[in-house]
Design brief:
By secondary structure, the chain is α+β, with helices and mostly antiparallel strands. The protein is built from one helix and three strands. A three-stranded antiparallel sheet has the order 1-2-3, with helices on one face. Strand 2 and strand 3 form a beta hairpin. The longest helix has 15 residues. It is globular.
Length: 65
């Protein structure tokens, strides 16, 4: 499975990206970036860290869900 990074405008002078799954499900939406260079750096960071990222469960143990 490969995701698709979609580059979007977010106001007059800012950008964001949306990561979608193959089936079109939105997986993540980035914060605003001031320029394309910063946006590309953000996409690169997601690519590098997502596969090796830890999962941290902040739910209280024993809490009803």
């Amino acid at each position: 499975m490969s995701g698709i990074f979609e580059i979007l405008t977010a106001g007059e002078r800012s950008f964001r990206f949306r990561l979608t799954a193959d089936d079109g499900t939105v997986v993540a939406v980035s914060p605003k970036f001031p320029d394309i260079q910063a946006l590309v750096a953000g996409i690169s960071a997601v690519r590098e860290n997502a596969a090796t990222g830890f999962v941290v469960d902040h739910r209280a143990l024993g809490a009803a869900q």
